[in-house]
Amino acid sequence: MAYTIDRYPPEEPSRLGAMTLHPVAESVPRARRWFRKFITPYHPACALDDCELMISELVTNAILYGRSEGDWVVRVEWFREKNSLRVDVHNPGFPAAIRMRHPSANEAHGRGLLLIDAIADSWRSGPSPFGGTVVSFVVDDAWSA
Length: 145
Description:
By secondary structure, the protein is of the alpha+beta class. It has one domain: Heat Shock Protein 90 (2-Layer Sandwich), CATH 3.30.565. The protein has three helices and six strands; from the N terminus they run E-E-H-H-E-E-H-E-E. The protein has a six-stranded antiparallel β-sheet, with helices on one face. Strand 1 and strand 2 form a beta hairpin. Helix 1 runs antiparallel to helix 2 and helix 2 packs antiparallel against helix 3. The radius of gyration is 15 Å and the shape is globular.
């Protein structure tokens, strides 16, 4: 199986869902589809297309830059924190490797974090509680007060 979905009673009350994906290209559209399917019943007021785009960028980066000896996975989790939506993408890469690039107009890659920086209200990277790296973005006012 190329993925698992975990949307039933979360350990953390604010967690709305999670998925674990193998580091293959097919996981990127799968992450978008499953996120939309499982966040929709919570009726967020934010632009889900923007969230899917940011998830695509982070899952792609996790697949491209995650490193581990042996088999490894990418984990995506989404949380409601008051009126905000937070999405975390975990991979086994080193936290120090995350940086926002400023590619030239001729470069085909390197704009993922710039895109997230432009769309999300905030984002961060650091050590993952699962080991490796987590990159998160937050969309404020994803739900009405």
